[in-house]
Amino acid sequence: MATRERLRINMDPKEGAAPGHRVSRTKQVVGAVAIHSGRRLIVSIGTAHGPAPSVPSRGQHTVWLAMPQTILIADDEQNIIKLLRMYLHEEGYEVVTARDGREALERFRADSPDLVLLDLMMPEIGGYDVCMEIRKESDVPVLMLTARSEDIDKIVGLEMGADDYITKPFNPREVVARVKATLRRREWDRRSSEAAEPDPVTIEDLTLDPASRDVVVSGERVKLRQREFDLLEAFMRHPNVALDRERLLSMVWGEDFYGDARTIDVHVAWLRDKLKAAQPKIETVWGVGYKLVPSGDAA
């Protein structure tokens, strides 16, 4: 039999979603829809057992659901979980929680969150190892929560694949602001990828194709993560141009990036390692930043 649910929806995906919601472009519900005031609709959803039943309506409609975005909070301190959950709920996010690293991975795989708030020091499996496991499966944003303020701990977190870090004690409003900024950047990346892609770019034996998200060195495909790919594209579209860290952050991470500019150094180190067989090289411009130099232009 069919299920009947009350859902918040957006009639037009181009209008975007409310804060804390994502417009799902993959989940369309086709059925008999009773239209009420505003954007609150009652949708009769067909199930595997049969189509949606008839209800008084204006006919058959296809609606785009505004799905609440899901945040996974993984922390062994219950008071932190309660505090962050309260603030995130107020902003319209769905929240799932985990008290140790093993449970965090289980919840991640079961709930497919849109963003992970991950404590560094957790029982069972530590935050670094959890982050590495997540990165093997997904490029979902990971914000590290850490009581350690030393630079080396922050850099290691970035090297493990974290997108940003937040030092305890923190203001929960700042955490929410960083969550929003990170998800905005991710949505912008998604929309950019759906737009008309620029042409591939080739420098010597290195080719980057934005449409397929492929990077090829001398005919061999090189696997890059999302930010690595975007950073390489910024370099390849500006060969021999010295790009400072702030400009690279703006080009790749967006204007509202809250994190440390040293994340550029970490990603450049990853790119250098993965592209060591390529003829063009990413060189350090002391006091400025980095530039991509073809082998024929190297000093």
How would you describe this protein?
- By secondary structure, the chain is α+β, with helices and mostly antiparallel strands.
- The protein folds into three domains: 3-67, no CATH class; 70-193, Rossmann fold, CATH 3.40.50; 197-297, Arc Repressor Mutant, subunit A, CATH 1.10.10.10.
- Helices cover 33% and strands 29% of the residues.
- The protein has eight helices and 16 strands.
- Strands 6-5-7-8-9 form a five-stranded parallel sheet, with helices on both faces. A four-stranded antiparallel β-barrel has the order 1-3-2-4. Strands 10-11-12-13 form a four-stranded antiparallel sheet, covered by helices on one side.
- Helix 6 (226-236) packs across helix 7 (245-253).
- It is elongated, with a radius of gyration of 22 Å.
- The termini are far apart.
- Mean pLDDT is 77; it is low at 1-19 and 21-65.
Could you write a compact summary of the structure shown?
With 299 residues, the protein is an alpha+beta fold. It is built from eight helices and 16 strands.
Strand and helix layout:
Layout lengths: L2 E8 L10 E15 L4 E6 L14 E9 L1 E5 L3 H13 L3 E5 L2 H11 L3 E5 L7 H11 L4 E5 L4 H9 L4 E4 L4 H23 L6 E3 L2 E4 L4 E4 L2 E3 L3 H11 L6 E2 H9 L9 H12 L6 E5 L3 E5 L6
Parallel strand pairs: 5-6, 5-7, 7-8, 8-9
Antiparallel strand pairs: 1-3, 1-4, 2-3, 2-4, 10-11, 11-12, 12-13, 14-16, 15-16
Task: Give short descriptive properties of this protein.
299 residues, Arc Repressor Mutant, subunit A, single chain, Rossmann fold, alpha+beta, elongated, disordered N terminus, five-stranded parallel beta sheet
